[in-house]
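Fig. S4 source data, part A: sequence.
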Amino acid sequence: MAEPKARKKESRTKVDFASIGGLVLGLGGILCGMLLEKGQMHDVYQVSAGIIVFGGTIGAVMLTSPAGALLRAAKHLGLVFFDRTHSAQDTIEEIIEYATQARKQGIVSLEQQVNTVHDPFLRKALNLAVDGIEMSQIRSIMELDLSLMEQDGEAEAKVYEAAGGYSPTIGIIGAVLGLINVMKNLANIDEVGRGIAAAFVATIYGVGAANLFFLPAGSKLRSRMQDSIRIRELMLEGVLSIVEGLNPKLIRTKLDAYVQQQTAPAKKPAAAKSKAAGQPVSAEG
């Protein structure tokens, strides 16, 4: 009998055009608006302002966040622009292959295939299943892994959200420092005007970085983490179904329904449905 193919390839990486397009559109809209108002590019090009804002923001984030979270956040920055989440359908197909073999030859026959599984979560769950661990214990162990994964992902997102909170304030500090230098040249009104304009560039950098990158990046990383957890919950349900000895066709039906449930929009409350139908929700007075 043909054995399941080894799953050695990593999950496919897809470019997130929404992230790239959003960043380009946001920056482009601001710069185009500035040019339409007779502004010039060199008006917002200030190396000193960039050093103050980004240097100060990074320093504040380093002081706030644990070293592990900082390193993971820097390592996973690419996830803002690239989606490496497993496909739910590919995951289901992989689980069905293992379920079919376990159904015909016994779950112990999966021992040779387990080491070829690329995803460490699925590999660990299958190893526990092959070792004969009870379903309740497998669920408990793997749900603990999911909880730790969620905590790590949340910590990474908070690194960027912290940067988004600090950078506008650091930008104000940069503007104040620029105004201090302006006050030294009050005798030259032309220099005063140019100095004030340059001073506020730091504020632009701080507010712009927070709202165009740091805060959106934190939200995107949190979204990636939630997608990854949903896929791994699917993996866990599949492995538990294999341990339970369910028919592969039934497992497919179960996992397909699980995916549909996870992606279905939230149902409206009964009160909202009654209101939409024009029926009174409660009698008053």
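Fig. S4 source data, part B ends here. The chain has one domain: 14-252.
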